Amino acid sequence: MAKYYMPEGMRYATLEERKEFYTAEFSLSKMAQWFEKCIGKVNFAVIIGRHTRIYPEKYREDADTTIIIDEHQSLSQVQNQILEFLPESAYYDRNVYDENDRKTGQELAFDLDPENITCPIHGSLADKMKRHQGLSFCALELQMVKEQAIRLYEYLEKEFSETRIVYSGRGFHIHVFDPEAYTLSDKKRRELARTVKAKGFGIDEWVTAGEMRLIRLPYSLHGLVSRIVLPVEKSELERFNPVVDARCIPKFLGEAFTS
Ligand SMILES: [Zn+2]
Predict the structure, then answer these.
(1) What is d(CA 29, CA 78) in angstroms, rounded to the nearest whole number?
(2) Beta-bridge partner residues of 214
(3) How far from 136 is each of 53, 91, 133, 218, CA to CA, in Å?
(4) Of 226 and 7, the one with more pLDDT
(5) How far apart are the CA of 231 and the centre of ligand 1, in A?
(6) How far is the CA of 116 from the centre of ligand 1 (A)?
(7) What's the rounded Cα separation, in Å, for the pair 249 and 255?
(8) Distances, alpha carbon 121 to alpha carbons 124, 128, 207, 214, in Å
(9) pLDDT the model gives residue 6
(10) Which of 52, 69, 128, 231 sees the fewest Cβ atoms within 10 Å?
(11) How does residue 1 score in pLDDT terms, banded at 50, 70 and 90?
(12) CA nearest 216: which of 24, 73, 103, 47?
């Protein structure tokens, strides 16, 4: 298996580091603020060790599984479950359900990842896949994906008013909280995904079309790169550098990398 490459300072988090982060640093109040905009009950999900192969021994069998967390009364119960699994990744479900657990809509989102960027050095996603480096990315790809996030935000702003940008740990997510976006038909979502893709944005169409309903949880730890998933203002995006920005660097990395 080929080695993953990542911008300097980014690396897998250990189990002990995940534990330290979710015990002491994970902000339930910031997370609660994020979900103020969401309608209805939110379900969560974790993946323990699919990509990193780092997992608590007792969860060896479930390391690859997407584990849904839907039985919780509070965010602190969600935190407790995350501490039980110590996952590499945490997500929430964009689907909105009624009291009978019937789906009534879905938050619209756009997922821009550096692997979807064709890099002058590392080539296209197909090239990277051929070398088994589908999750690798470089500083240049990170810069390019940031520029795409700015442009995509500006494009979406013309149509929607409640848009937010999140640094996902690798690339960027754009979330749309306009009520009418929740009720878009599957057909409309597919069309929107295709339109945005045709404009040259390196989005993951499955996320926008709705087939992939999970999205990375803001303020959680991205365990492949040891970065905190962070909502960022559009106005600061130009200067934003997740390799050194203190707000997305967990304490366990120390201050070595922060600017
Ligand atoms: Zn590259």
Answers:
(1) 13
(2) 93
(3) 16, 20, 5, 22
(4) 226
(5) 24
(6) 11
(7) 9
(8) 9, 11, 27, 31
(9) 83
(10) 231
(11) very low
(12) 47
The pLDDT of residue 128: 87
Could you tell me the distance, in angstroms and rounded to a whole number, from the CA of residue 6 to the centre of ligand 1? 9
Q: How far is the CA of 54 from the centre of ligand 1 (A)?
A: 26
CB 136 within 8 A of CB 5: yes
Kindly state the tokens that stand for 127.
């090239």
Ligand 1 centroid – CA 121 distance (Å): 5
What are the helix (H) ranges across the chain?
Answer: 15-20, 28-35, 75-85, 125-130, 139-157, 179-182, 186-198, 205-209, 234-237
Distance from the CA of 142 to the center of ligand 1, in angstroms? 8
Q: Is 172:229 a contact under the CB 8 Å cutoff?
A: no
What is the whole-number distance in angstroms between the Cα of residue 207 and the centre of ligand 1? 23
151 Cα to the center of ligand 1, angstroms: 20
Three-class DSSP category at 172: strand
User: pTM here?
Assistant: 0.92
Distance, CA 218 to ligand 1 centroid (Å)?
Answer: 26
Which residues lie closer than 8 Å to 241 by C-beta, 6 or more apart? 259
Tell me the C-alpha to C-alpha distance, in Å, between residue 175 and each of 45, 66, 96, 112. 18, 22, 14, 11
